[in-house]
Amino acid sequence: MTHKIRCKHNWSKLGIKDNSALKEHIKRIFERHRHQRDALVDIYKLVYPKWDHIEKIDGYPEVGNELWKFICRGFIAFDKKHHPNVFKGGIWMNNGFSSNSLLDPWELSLKNCRIYMK
Q1: Count: domains in the chain
Q2: 103: domain range?
Q3: Which pLDDT score is estimated for 1?
């Protein structure tokens, strides 16, 4: 099974069938965590459901501009609430997905990523 198919199966199990459901799922990630690192890991787990079995990732997932902005705004609001003394959204800008204007606004691409399993 390819990684893309595994990711789609994971989203289906999570009830993510469209962009609206994806937005709600991401909002809930921010609501249930108190540290930005935990929220970031849960967002990566949307793309890499076998997160705990990954040793290393070369590259970053790419997403369309709207999805990137939506997640970034979520981290900015999250940091204002939980980490008022840090650069708001900094963890997303430094370690989050890359934005790619050639993708559809809510599209995800893993073509520039290589994962190494444990």
Answers
A1: 1
A2: 3-117
A3: 53
